[in-house]
Design a protein that fits this description.
Order of helices and strands: HEEEEEEEEEEEEH
Number of helices: 2
Strand order of the largest sheet: 4-3-6-7-10
Distance between the termini: 81 Å
Helix content: 10-25%
Strand content: 25-35%
Number of strands: 12
Structural class: alpha+beta
Largest sheet: 5 strands, antiparallel
Length: 201
């Protein structure tokens, strides 16, 4: 009996390194491009014009949506903004991205009760280097080349071209929709309701 137990323990111990080898690791920089004192980066701002409360890097198991259905965060939210400028050079080291491989990278922005999602169209899908090799290097930052034409947004997000650091890049702001926007939404709803009523009649 003791021999069987020893063999079982040895078998489990032999499998443990295999589970470690299967992990995909990555070093990720995300947020604003602040490397090398470049010309500009993305600014993350709230309704008061100051920095947003937090940004989080993550991915969706299905289609991206503002309800955050299927959302998984990679690491904890980052709140280390320059308060007045909204710049944020966040980074992860040796992060386990096994569950995220081949998923699109999104940045979730929060400010008070508002949320928004944004990603650059040219960002690659999340990947990693199988350990124990050195982690893959992944970059998901907004820089001076980004504009409204090169990013995708969801939620209460507005983008200002050339509004980033040093007047280049983009300013990414969370804002409550204007009253006119609510009126437009209500008007579309009312028209749809009338059309349905007439069809039934």
């Amino acid at each position: 009996m003791k021999i069987k137990n020893l063999l079982l323990v040895a078998s489990i111990a032999a499998l443990l390194p295999l589970s470690a080898v299967a992990q995909s690791k990555a070093n990720i920089s995300w947020g604003s491009d602040l490397s090398g004192g470049g010309p500009g980066g993305g600014q993350f701002q709230g309704t008061d014009g100051n920095a947003a409360d937090s940004i989080t890097l993550g991915y969706f198991s299905g289609s991206a949506n503002i309800a955050l259905t299927g959302w998984t965060a990679l690491g904890a939210p980052d709140t280390t903004f320059n308060v007045s400028s909204g710049l944020n050079g966040a980074a992860f080291s040796d992060l386990d991205v096994t569950s995220a491989v081949n998923k699109e990278a999104w940045i979730l922005i929060t400010d008070a009760a508002l949320t928004g999602l944004i990603r650059a169209n040219d960002w690659s899908n999340i990947s990693g280097t199988t350990s124990p090799s050195p982690p893959a290097t992944l970059v998901y930052t907004f820089d001076s080349t980004d504009s409204t034409a090169t990013v995708t947004t969801l939620g209460n997000v507005t983008i200002t071209d050339n509004g980033g650091f040093n007047g280049t890049g983009i300013a990414i702001a969370l804002a409550v929709p204007e009253p006119g926007t609510y009126a437009l939404i209500f008007g579309l709803f009312a028209l749809s309701w009338v059309a349905i009523r007439r069809r039934r009649a």
